[in-house]
């Protein structure tokens, strides 16, 4: 599970409450206390639950979890309860709620794709791309993980993936020459390449690339390529990328892809988290 530093969560609080909670202060709620309950308004796969809980603790509340990131929740299922002074609850309320809502949308959409793909191929890997909103990579990775997938690559420093845009700067170089250079310079790394055609994919496989990423191939084209690759010695892994979503995940899996690479979950609508407050009648109440 991806963990968040307190400093990262404190920045989220500081962004929303930079100079104190003016409304709560002006209403004189410093002596009031109560409990705040989060629950799923509809079916969802929650994400960032633990981070939201820690954020509420940093705001000054005591938190009890009823669900974990990655669980399958039915409508009405409890997620967490936070107890403490009213200022602490109100300070962390919206930030924690929004954190769970937005990234649970991503996690739920990811789970949908994973389940569709694995209905056809139980061992297939679903990978989320790095095409998430800049600055949100860690949140996106946590949500994708909660949905049962992995991250395709977290950044340019992590893996070697040759794109056609790289090849444009190497006119005349063969794929064999490129693969040989990469193996010599980074012998501990696997080599991946994105291809646009069947013939280019076969050429890359013969050149020794370990993974062929077929960009915007149809399921039928993936099936044809998967069949051709099976006849090669040292068959590379085949990844289908570009336009992969819930509606076609099963077809790509049936076609023989080893990996489905997708950005679709990042555009999913947030899930709705219901929040209710219970006032502690034994605590002092403000005088208006």
UniProtKB/TrEMBL annotation:
InterPro entries xrefs: Aldolase_TIM (IPR013785), ModD (IPR006242), NadC/ModD (IPR027277), Nicotinate_pribotase-like_C (IPR036068), Quinolinate_PRibosylTase_N_sf (IPR037128), Quinolinate_PRibosylTrfase_C (IPR002638), Quinolinate_PRibosylTrfase_N (IPR022412)
Domain Quinolinate phosphoribosyl transferase C-terminal: from-to ranges: 106-274
Domain of life: Bacteria
GO annotation, cellular component aspect: cytoplasm
CDD domains: modD_like
Database matches in Pfam families: QRPTase_C, QRPTase_N
GO terms under biological process: NAD+ biosynthetic process; quinolinate catabolic process
Domain Quinolinate phosphoribosyl transferase N-terminal: 21-102
GO molecular function: nicotinate-nucleotide diphosphorylase (carboxylating) activity
Record bears the keyword Glycosyltransferase: yes
Protein name: Putative pyrophosphorylase ModD
Organism: Rhodoblastus acidophilus (Rhodopseudomonas acidophila)
């Amino acid at each position: 599970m991806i963990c968040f530093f307190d400093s990262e969560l404190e920045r989220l609080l500081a962004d929303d409450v930079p100079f104190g909670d003016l409304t709560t202060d002006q209403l004189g709620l410093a002596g009031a206390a109560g409990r705040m309950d989060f629950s799923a308004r509809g079916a969802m796969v929650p994400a960032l639950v633990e981070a939201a809980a820690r954020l509420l603790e940093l705001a000054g509340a005591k938190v009890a979890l009823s669900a974990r990131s990655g669980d399958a929740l039915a409508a009405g299922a409890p997620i967490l309860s936070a107890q403490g002074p009213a200022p602490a609850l109100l300070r962390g309320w919206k930030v924690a709620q929004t954190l769970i809502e937005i990234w649970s949308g991503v996690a739920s959409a990811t789970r949908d794709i994973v389940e569709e793909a694995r209905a056809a191929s139980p061992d297939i890997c679903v990978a989320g791309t790095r095409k998430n909103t800049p600055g949100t990579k860690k949140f996106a990775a946590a949500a994708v993980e909660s949905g049962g997938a992995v991250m395709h690559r977290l950044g340019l420093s992590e893996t070697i993936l040759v794109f056609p845009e790289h090849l444009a700067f190497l006119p005349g170089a063969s794929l064999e020459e490129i693969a040989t250079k990469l193996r010599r310079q980074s012998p501990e790394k696997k080599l991946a390449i994105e291809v646009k055609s069947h013939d280019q994919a076969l050429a890359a496989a013969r050149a020794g690339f370990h993974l062929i990423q077929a960009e915007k191939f149809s399921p039928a084209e993936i099936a044809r390529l998967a069949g051709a690759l099976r006849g090669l010695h040292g068959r590379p892994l085949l990844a289908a990328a570009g336009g992969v979503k819930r509606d076609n995940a099963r077809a790509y899996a049936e076609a023989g892809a080893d990996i489905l690479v997708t950005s679709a979950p990042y555009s999913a609508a947030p899930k709705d988290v219901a929040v209710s407050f219970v006032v502690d009648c034994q605590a002092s109440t403000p005088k208006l």
